[in-house]
């Protein structure tokens, strides 16, 4: 079960957040910033919800930023979502530059808090821990060369690829290679945003424009000023909102919900989707004019199974060493290595990373064996077995089967299972898939 830690000196705020988030995972609360490091050691949360001010009357966020620096410097740091007051846009931007994956303004609608933490859980790897795009296959070398080439421009880039191939890593590399590198990179996961909140999230809203809008709030376009806005899972944006996004991109201005005054924006937009290329040009799903706006350059990130055994082995060694920490990483036995190289990796590099984490935690022998990685090898002949009636095991198998059938496409797998993407992500976390 994913772990969420809330650090806020206001017990009422912390309690409200804990209640809103309890169905997403195990939620722990600390009220004193002095307890933070011990709590991180003890709980090892996936997401930290961090308040920025701890002194009565303080609002500069200095205490929060100092804590944030300490947290993101840790090995396997949690994804950090910072909590700011509505007027503290500048502080939120500084926190994003400092490695927070997102921010939420107080007071929040619960729906928004849940969506925000859910997206952070799905992403999990914190911004600063995102490293190099590894891989020496011709496909990966060419991808890195393209990133260096288009990174330096202002061109909109559409990043295509299955789930877990590294689209967000590509977006971060493009941002780092751009003249906007000193500005923030703000990622918005369209897949986890409730439809009713998309516009206010992207464009902001004016106080009183809807029931929960108790204060005015800047949208993502404004918060990412002078930086890059990464629109992830763009294929999930409903058509009416696509029209508004297109207008914002064309006019380079946004109009907050409930306002009639457009605000100029200065962002570079990167977008990503796991929708197969053949389906992208279906006008019932995607406005072609928006697509043409976003795909000045198209970068295709290949599935892991197409990168060759050397890339798989390189990634295995990288992540096993990463999870071993200071200890020397064990070797992988020859049979396991051959099966890992031949495995289809429907969840791509994310699946490989999680398999390495699992193996590091659970392996007991002197070398890693195939069983340590917890993968189901569909190329091996299935041993005749009594069908299990264990509900958890059945659920795990159903999720694996749906992922395999959907070739790692989360939206499609969720449809096959008849659950929402968010519910599928929770099950992936639960079963360590
Ligand atoms: N080439 C790579 N080298 C090292 N790590 C990688 C590589 N590609 C992906 N990863 C790691 O795999 C995980 C998934 O990557 P990322 O989130 O960028 O994928 P994605 O394509 O954006 O996934 P989704 O479609 O589900 O949002 C991350 O932990 C990332 O650091």
TrEMBL record:
Cited SMART domains: AAA, REC
Start and end residues of each Sigma-54 factor interaction domain: 133-361
Parts forming coiled coils: 389-416
InterPro entries on file: AAA+_ATPase, AAA_lid_NorR, CheY-like_superfamily, Homeodomain-like_sf, HTH_Fis, P-loop_NTPase, Sig_transdc_resp-reg_receiver, Sigma_54_int
Top-level taxonomic group: Bacteria
Residue list for modification 4-aspartylphosphate: 51
Response regulatory domain mapped to chain residues: 3-121
UniProt keyword terms in alphabetical order: ATP-binding, Coiled coil, Nucleotide-binding, Phosphoprotein, Transcription, Transcription regulation
Signal sequence residues: none
Protein name: Sigma-54-dependent transcriptional regulator
Originating organism: Pelomonas candidula
Taxonomy of the source species: Bacteria, Pseudomonadati, Pseudomonadota, Betaproteobacteria, Burkholderiales
């Amino acid at each position: 079960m994913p772990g969420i830690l809330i650090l806020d000196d206001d017990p009422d705020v912390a309690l409200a957040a804990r209640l809103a988030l309890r169905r997403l995972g195990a939620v722990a609360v600390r009220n004193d910033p002095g307890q933070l490091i011990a709590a991180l050691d003890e709980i090892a949360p996936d997401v930290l919800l961090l308040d920025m001010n701890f002194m009565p009357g303080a609002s500069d966020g200095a205490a929060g930023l100092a804590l944030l620096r300490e947290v993101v410097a840790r090995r396997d740091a949690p994804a950090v979502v910072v909590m700011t007051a509505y007027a503290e846009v500048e502080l939120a931007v500084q926190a994003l530059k400092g490695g927070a994956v997102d921010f939420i303004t107080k007071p929040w609608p619960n729906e928004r808090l849940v969506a925000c933490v859910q997206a952070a859980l799905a992403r999990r790897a914190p911004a600063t821990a995102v490293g190099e795009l590894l891989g020496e296959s011709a496909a990966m070398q060419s991808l890195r060369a393209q990133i260096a080439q288009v990174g330096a421009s202002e061109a909109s880039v559409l990043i295509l690829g299955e789930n877990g191939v590294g689209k967000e890593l590509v977006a971060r590399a493009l941002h780092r290679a751009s003249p906007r590198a000193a500005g923030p990179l703000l990622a918005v996961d369209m897949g986890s945003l409730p439809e009713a909140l998309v516009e206010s999230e992207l464009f902001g809203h004016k106080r009183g424009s809807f029931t929960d809008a108790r204060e005015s709030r800047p949208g993502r376009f404004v918060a990412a000023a002078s930086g890059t806005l990464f629109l992830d899972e763009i294929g999930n944006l409903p058509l009416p909102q696509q029209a508004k996004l297109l207008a914002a991109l064309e006019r380079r201005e946004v109009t907050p919900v409930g306002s009639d005054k457009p605000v100029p924006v200065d962002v570079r937009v990167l977008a990503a989707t796991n929708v197969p290329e053949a389906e992208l040009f279906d006008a019932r799903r995607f406005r072609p004019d928006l697509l043409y706006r976003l795909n000045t350059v198209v970068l295709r990130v290949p599935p892991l199974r197409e990168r060759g055994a050397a890339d798989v082995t390189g990634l295995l060694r990288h992540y096993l060493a990463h999870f071993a920490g200071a200890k020397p990483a064990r070797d992988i036995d020859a049979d396991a290595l051959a099966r890992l190289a031949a495995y289809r990796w429907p969840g791509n590099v994310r699946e490989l990373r999680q398999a390495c984490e699992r193996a590091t935690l659970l392996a007991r022998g002197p070398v890693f064996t195939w069983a340590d990685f917890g993968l189901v090898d569909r190329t091996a002949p299935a041993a005749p077995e009594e069908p299990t009636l264990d509900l958890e095991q059945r659920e795990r198998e159903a999720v694996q089967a749906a992922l395999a059938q959907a070739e790692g496409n989360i939206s499609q797998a969720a449809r096959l299972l008849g659950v929402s993407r968010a519910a599928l992500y929770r099950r992936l976390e639960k079963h360590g898939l």
